[in-house]
Amino acid sequence: MLVKKASDIRSSEITDKKHYLARREFIRAAALTTAGAAAGALGAGDAEAQSWPRVKIAGPLKESGWGKGEKPNAYEDITSYNNYYEFGTEKDEPARNAHTLKTKPWTVKIDGLVNKPADYQLEDILKPETLEDRIYRLRCVERWSMVIPWVGFPLANLLKRIEPKSNAKFVEFTTLLNQTQMPETRRGVLDWPYLEGLRLDEAMNPLTILAVGLYGEYLPNQNGAPIRLVVPWKYGFKSIKSIVRIRLTENQPMNSWQLSAPNEYGFYSNVNPERDHPRWSQARERRIGEFLMRPTVIFNGYGDQVASLYSGMDLKRYY
Amino acid sequence: MKPLVFAAALVPFALLIWRGVTGNLSADPLAEITNETGIWTLRFVAVTLAITPLRRVTGWNPIIRYRRMLGLFAFFYGTLHFLTYVVADRFASLDFPDGFVAWSTVVNLMAAIWEDVAKRPYITVGFIAFVSMMPLALTSTAGWIRRLGGRNWQRLHRLIYLTGIAAVTHYWWKVKADTLHPAIYAAIVAVLLGFRVVLAIKRNHEDTKTRRRVSVAQGV
After folding, report:
1. How far away is chain A from the Cα of B157, in angstroms, using its nearest Cα?
2. CA distances from A285 to A71, A273, A296, B164 (A)
3. How many domains does chain B divide into?
4. Predicted confidence band at B45 (pLDDT cuts at 50, 70, 90)?
5. Cβ A144 vs Cβ A45: under 8 Å
6. Which residues pair with A170 in a beta bridge?
7. ipTM (interface pTM)
8. Do the domain assignments include residue A318?
9. Does residue B29 belong to any structural domain of this protein?
């Protein structure tokens, strides 16, 4: 078994202090000596003003304790550098285009192998939940990563409420598909709507959350408003945005990237430095705002919480 | 006119610096610099490849005077692109067992570049595109044309056809799912290279005709 036990990493533990300081020194030197391109750029966010409404989430948020000691990326970076292909395939396009998404009213269809299937209003999903802060690392399959202070609640809470039947083994999620609101879906870049899936035990893991906000505010549309999945030990594309359907199934569902390129993306898509993407190495990642790449950690550093889900599995085969 | 074209060709570079200074290079500036220098390399390769067809079609001969400059700008942006990759991707993902300034850094960097070029097809073709421009940039002077002789020089500089094909392939293999832009550039390069093929076939045809006419006249 290749699974290494990795504890929850703090940013200061990743690199030893000598290198950490040397890196800062290097960045400063690079900024001073190279052309202004590097100088102003390193670690700087988008200076443009935000064009989306920022609404604070009312009421006190539960302190979850997750991600204490992590330094979250800037709000500007998190909300201007997005993969949300329904609004364009360039990183800056979702922030510019997603204002057309209508998030009110919002209905989530819950069906499949559950005792309480229904079209749930978002308000009804949220009503019994206590929202909490969850600072998680997010590792994109493209080799960059961020630390994001999400606001959300455990998916397990919702799943318990809708009562999965005994033969339910998987959860399938679907993103909204609306060509008027999402003009880019008229092009067949992916087979819309965007689909994702989890094994039921992955979905029930306490780390898995449905997020409705970040930095104490409701999600901007480009980050997957009004409700999205966050699975921090898997590559970012698993954390499906703007969910309109949750379906419980007996058979393993397909996800959009798996349908698009099955040799590159699998069902599990756990962060794994030892299993290269066919076109690039996954051994390291660039934390947004840093120059030197960090070593990528198995399960994105959440091995203590999730490694047991995969005991005995060949993670290179089940990528 | 020439200084004007020169200045225009520097605009993308200037813009990149300006965006850097004002902090407008996205949350991941190194990725943005890589993408921008890459796409401008491809654009300049395409523009350079367009000179001959344009001249033939419009009969506007003076345009040939800009070909060398545009080709050298393709090499300029290609060099920036390659160096960004070397620094932001290869160097930044190294271990530094002996600190930054050490012989091992040089050795590890070379190994890291070579490993990537050998292992990743899209890097391989990108590297081919870059390396194929080197002899062209090197022999772009009047002195080298003289030394090689016009015909040999021309033959060597047909390497830019390879540059075009390799660059487009590099772009295509790099994108995750959205192949629209690579497809547009592929179409442009295909038309520009196709023009040469048509030209060559025509020339061949005319040569045969001339030869036949000569043969008839000589009574063979």
Report:
1. 31
2. 16, 9, 6, 31
3. 1
4. very high
5. no
6. A199, A249
7. 0.87
8. no
9. yes
> Using CA atoms in the order B18, B21, B25, B31, what is the torsion angle rounded to 10 degrees?
100
Residue B147 located in a structural domain: yes
Domain containing A93 equals 11-310
Give the pLDDT confidence of A72-85 residue by residue, as tens digits.
Answer: 999 999 999 999 99
**Distances from the Cα of A83 to the Cαs of A93, A172, A203, A294, in angstroms?**
9, 20, 22, 21
Phi first, then psi: give them for residue A206, nearest 5 degrees: -60, -20
Strands A107-112, A144-154: pairing is unpaired
CB of A46 within 8 Å of a chain B CB? The answer is yes
Residue B4 token pair: 């004007």
From chain A, pick out residues whose CB is under 8 angstroms from the CB of B20. Answer: 35-41
Report yes or no: A143 and B116 within 8 Å, Cβ to Cβ: no
Is A293 in contact with B174 (Cβ distance < 8 A)? no
Chain A residues closer than 8 Å to B28 by CB: 81, 91, 144, 286, 288
Q: How far apart are CA A72 and CA A24, in angstroms?
A: 18
Portion of chain A with pLDDT greater than 70, in percent: 84
- The pLDDT, as a whole number, for residue A62 is 92
Q: Do residue B26 and residue A91 have CB atoms under 8 angstroms apart?
A: yes
